[in-house]
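Folding Task

Wanted — backbone structure
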Amino acid sequence: MKTILINAREEDAAKRADVYLAEELTDFSRSFLKKLFDGGEVLVNGVPVKASYKIRPEDEVKTVIPDSVLPDILPENIPLDILYEDEDILVVNKPKDMVVHPAAGHYSGTLVNAVMFHCRDSLSGINGVLRPGIVHRIDKDTTGSLVICKNDDAHRVLAEQFAVHSINRKYRAVICGRLPEKEMTIDRPIGRSRNDRKKMSVDSPYRKRAVTHIHVLKENSEYSYVECTLETGRTHQIRVHLASIGHPVIGDELYGPKKNKFSGLVSGQALHAFLLGFIHPRTGEYVEFTAPVPEYFERLLVLCKLD
């Protein structure tokens, strides 16, 4: 079992307890959290509360997450496109259609299975048996640079940089239409959709601040090739932000149009984690890595006349 303890802040005042917990524990579904309330497993200041309880500043919210039965996660000899490696970190160029870490329905063929084989016993254990070495992730259909931590010290240092949003992350995307400006910033909070747990939304009641800076690289009347710099790192942030202003990423089956003109070439969003920069956990120096865009991406740029 895992005990989670959270202290409410001033900005959380008057929120329903179930809404508050959904904002804080985004890895769990609302139906799962409801079961915790129904079972008396959510305590505020030591007392079980109902989902409708109104949070007060400095409330101490405690809940116990029961253990789940986990399958064995095994190393697999899957080729890795390694951009950089030393005794502390491994930076890879993740291919399309690869899940980062095991989860329901994906217990093999993931990046974790691959790095377990490559690194053997040299992976941080902070995130548990399902996510050894994983300090951040990118979507299954997003390609590009991702850093793996080989020990707990490196993990702690990089996790802190992610927490304070000091990591330099630039993505490349091919999107629908022409943006109104060459340089623009989307500052719209994002949270789990109230209607679909698979989706994030700028209209969610569980929103947190999200900021994306966009620079147009090339454009025409139908499509644009853009570079997106993350100031924050919410789930699906770039995809949600671009869709929210009417310019979804090409191939995005979740946030874009149902009909994909490039379905023979693009399966899933045309989004690539191009650049990753951070302070090295051992040397204290800034390091930066770029992942070349994949072949399908180059062909898409040609078809969209953005090459």
